[in-house]
TrEMBL record:
<protein>
    <submittedName>
        <fullName>Cystathionine gamma-synthase</fullName>
    </submittedName>
</protein>
<dbReference type="GO" id="GO:0003962">
    <property type="term" value="F:cystathionine gamma-synthase activity"/>
</dbReference>
<feature type="modified residue" description="N6-(pyridoxal phosphate)lysine">
    <location>
        <position position="203"/>
    </location>
</feature>
<dbReference type="InterPro" id="IPR011821">
    <property type="entry name" value="O_succ_thio_ly"/>
</dbReference>
<dbReference type="InterPro" id="IPR015422">
    <property type="entry name" value="PyrdxlP-dep_Trfase_small"/>
</dbReference>
<dbReference type="GO" id="GO:0004123">
    <property type="term" value="F:cystathionine gamma-lyase activity"/>
</dbReference>
<dbReference type="Pfam" id="PF01053">
    <property type="entry name" value="Cys_Met_Meta_PP"/>
</dbReference>
<dbReference type="InterPro" id="IPR000277">
    <property type="entry name" value="Cys/Met-Metab_PyrdxlP-dep_enz"/>
</dbReference>
<comment type="similarity">
    <text>Belongs to the trans-sulfuration enzymes family.</text>
</comment>
<dbReference type="GO" id="GO:0005737">
    <property type="term" value="C:cytoplasm"/>
</dbReference>
<dbReference type="InterPro" id="IPR054542">
    <property type="entry name" value="Cys_met_metab_PP"/>
</dbReference>
<dbReference type="InterPro" id="IPR015421">
    <property type="entry name" value="PyrdxlP-dep_Trfase_major"/>
</dbReference>
<dbReference type="GO" id="GO:0019346">
    <property type="term" value="P:transsulfuration"/>
</dbReference>
<dbReference type="GO" id="GO:0030170">
    <property type="term" value="F:pyridoxal phosphate binding"/>
</dbReference>
<dbReference type="InterPro" id="IPR015424">
    <property type="entry name" value="PyrdxlP-dep_Trfase"/>
</dbReference>
<keyword id="KW-0663">Pyridoxal phosphate</keyword>
<dbReference type="GO" id="GO:0019343">
    <property type="term" value="P:cysteine biosynthetic process via cystathionine"/>
</dbReference>
Length: 389
């Protein structure tokens, strides 16, 4: 980090200050965006810091530095999407090709993993990471990579990061954690020993639902070099404008999350007391089976939740016809509140049997809580629920 006084600063200070007042040309307070494709050489054999924007860009460097700092890594690789960040991970597996992943990880991640397994790039093992015996069996032989995702989508099940990361290391695996659902403001997997953190920056890090992006945070300089090489090689690096937007968005991460989480807690409590709601899945509720674990490994329960309507899919259809304020849309982590029916939207690619195994029922709805006033959000849910059977 270029500013010494930032070394011991809190993350909420670093996220604002990194890159501020760093413009050598005009002293711009906000770092300017560099939209150029290419850079001149000073003369024969005299390359400057950058030559071509696929391999390097100053705007991208600043957002990479911010995200690496927030996660406690040594560097980050900024790419065009969360999936592109994940796809870097198995380009350079050490030793063997065995990759162990959660059976309920994000559907797009599963599609990508299945495609790479079909190509022979990886040997893929799905495991229920909530099942101690299953995970121990899966990690009883040499493994190259263990991928973790907590909380799970959409049921908000947590896994014990400290325990699973140690198990992964015991069988020789490097461990990557997809931290998209909580963001570095609420969970820092590297503190528990993770080797990599992956983000769909599309979600909380950008936070405004107007950029698709991803980051791979590494814990060794060698890995930063390796995965930057791969990002450049496959042409997956993040565009300068997306990097600029994401940098602008991440500056407010901590205040956004604080507010969104406060509203989420109030909404979860409201839903938990409603007669038409069968179950609420939110780690901030004492009734959540891993409420204590959430307090141990998270700085807060987050702003995502799911709940089950007692009236099943018919009640869901009725609610979708009348609900106000919540947009019926996929994705999460933005300033706007969203409602999703996982079985027919985000998780539609899963077979009915797989949905049943994962516990995703027809009456389940997922909420991403935004920055609207929580009283208005609760009133909208209350009016909506009053109109369903
Ligand atoms: N990981 C998680 C947990 C996600 O929810 C998503 C997208 O929803 C991704 C990865 C993929 O990110 P992107 O859509 O930016 O490729």
């Amino acid at each position: 980090m270029s500013k010494n006084y930032l070394k011991n600063a809190k993350l909420g200070t670093k996220v604002i200050n990194i890159g501020i007042d760093s413009d050598p040309a005009h002293g711009a307070v906000m770092p300017p965006i560099y939209l150029t494709t290419n850079y001149t050489f000073e003369g024969f054999g005299k390359k400057r810091s950058y030559d071509y924007a696929r391999s390097g860009n100053p705007t991208r460097e600043i957002i990479a530095e911010v995200i690496a700092e927030l996660e406690g890594g040594v560097g980050a690789v900024m790419v065009a999407s969360g999936l592109a960040a994940l796809d870097l991970l198995w380009q350079d597996l050490p030793g063997n090709k065995r990759v162990v992943v959660p059976h309920d990880c994000y559907g797009g991640t599963q599609r990508l993993l299945n495609a790479r397994a079909k190509q022979g790039l990886i040997d893929l093992v799905y495991v229920d990471q909530g099942d101690d015996a299953a995970i121990e069996a899966a990690l009883s032989e040499p493994t190259a990579l263990l991928l973790l995702e907590t909380p799970s989508n959409p049921l908000m099940r947590l896994i014990d990061l400290e325990k699973l990361i140690a198990l992964g290391h015991k069988c020789g695996a490097k461990v990557a954690v997809d931290n998209t659902f909580l963001s570095p403001a609420l969970q820092n997997p590297i503190k528990f020993g993770a080797d990599f953190v992956v983000h769909s920056t599309t979600k909380y890090i950008n936070g405004h639902s107007d950029v698709i992006g991803g980051a791979l945070v590494c814990t060794t300089p060698e890995d930063v070099t390796t995965y930057r090489w791969w990002a450049n090689c496959v042409g997956a690096t993040a565009a300068p404008f997306d990097s600029y937007m994401t940098l602008r968005g991440v500056r407010t991460l901590f205040v956004r999350i604080r507010q969104q989480q406060q509203s989420a807690q109030a909404i979860a409590e409201y839903l938990a007391g409603h007669a038409k709601v069968k179950a609420v899945h939110y780690p901030g509720l004492p009734s959540h089976p891993q409420h204590e674990l959430s307090k141990k490994q998270q700085a807060g329960p987050g702003a995502m939740m799911s709940f089950e309507l007692a009236g099943g899919v018919e009640a869901v259809k009725q609610l979708f016809d009348v609900i106000e304020l919540f947009s019926l849309a996929e994705s999460l982590g933005g300033i706007e509140s969203l409602i999703v029916h996982p079985a027919s939207m985000t998780h539609a690619a899963m077979s009915p049997a797989a949905l049943a195994t994962a516990g995703i029922t027809d009456g389940l709805l997922r909420l991403s809580i935004g920055l609207e006033d929580s009283e208005d959000l609760i009133a909208a849910l209350d009016r909506g629920l009053a109109q369903i059977a």
